[in-house]
Amino acid sequence: MKYSKQRELILNSLKENCSHPTVEQLYEFIHKDQPTISLATIYRNLNQLAENGIVKKIEGLDNTAHFDHQTHDHYHFICKHCHQVFDIPYDIAPDLDQKVKNTTGLNVTSYDIAFRGICKNCQNSIN
Amino acid sequence: MKYSKQRELILNSLKENCSHPTVEQLYEFIHKDQPTISLATIYRNLNQLAENGIVKKIEGLDNTAHFDHQTHDHYHFICKHCHQVFDIPYDIAPDLDQKVKNTTGLNVTSYDIAFRGICKNCQNSIN
DNA sequence: CGCCATATTGATAATGATTATTATTATTGT
DNA sequence: ACAATAATAATAATCATTATCAATATGGCG
Closest partner residue to B115 among A88, A111, A117, by Cβ? Predict the structure, then answer.
């Protein structure tokens, strides 16, 4: 993996945006400072960073991929109203890969939990 | 919801295909007997059936939706090699919505777990 | 039964997210 | 500084899904 200032910028921007942004959101954010950056570059680099375990790609929350600069095990909650993503601690359901192995014999290499609901802010503002 | 023979056919076909088919797979299957059926009809009806709780829509396994004629709580494992989907019993991680509520205060209305790995058949055949 | 309101269909255009293509530019090792 | 290779910007292409709409089917009611 050769250095590029675009990749560095993308990674730093993701670290600043702790809100699990989508590619489009990250593009909007970066585009303000770097108007020449291409959307394809964001896609390419985020996928590359995810493949190398430097960031985490979160799929299955809604119909678009979100990215997370935190790589430690944890789960996610997405608000069906504002689409904001919240972290859910790993220890509410630890070692599920091992439990699946024990009960079914299947070897789990990765897994994700997508929790859905209405977040506290939206719950208040909807009333 | 008004009756239609297409919807009945789609639901019956899903019940016969216990393999968590995608829309495309179900279309191929039905198209053999009913060559005039439209792909849009399959999409429309599966979504409608899912909204009414008659079938279950599984998202987040890969980049396409799968459908399940079983509506009771359970999780899924998708093989990264053959893309077949397997059921994982609910009791390996029960009441996660309640646990999330207790630890974070968030109200979970639905959640899914996507387990990924290589299934036993593929594990053998790859060697 | 026949009529009407309305739901559904089939065909296809449109959309949205993502990936592929390609000529050009940047990075790295020697 | 040069050559090999990776990365970029711009954009076309792809894939899954949804929207549109004229034609057809369903179900209730007189």
Answer: A111
Per-residue pLDDT at A48 exceeds 70: yes
- The chain A residue lying nearest B113, using CA atoms, is A113
Average pLDDT score over chain A? 96
The mean per-residue pLDDT over the stretch B28-50 comes to 97
For chain A, the structural domain boundaries read 5-68, 74-126
CATH match of B5-68 with 1.10.10.10? yes
Q: What is the mean pLDDT of residues A44-68?
A: 96
Chain C bases closer than 7 angstroms to a protein Cβ: 6-13, 16-21, 26-28
- pLDDT at position B127 is 65
Q: From A98, which residue of chain B is nearest by alpha-carbon distance?
A: B92
Q: What is the DSSP string of chain A?
A: ----HHHHHHHHHHHH--S--BHHHHHHHHHHH-TT--HHHHHHHHHHHHHTTSSEEE-SSSSS-EEES--SSEEEEEETTT--EEEEEGGGSTTHHHHHHHHH--EEEEEEEEEEEE-HHHHHHH-
A127 has a pLDDT exceeding 70: no
- Residue A125 confidence class, pLDDT cut points 50, 70, 90: confident
- CB-CB under 8 Å, B118 with A114: no
CATH of domain A74-126: 3.30.1490.190
- Tell me whether B101 touches chain A (CB under 8 Å): no
Specify the pTM: 0.93
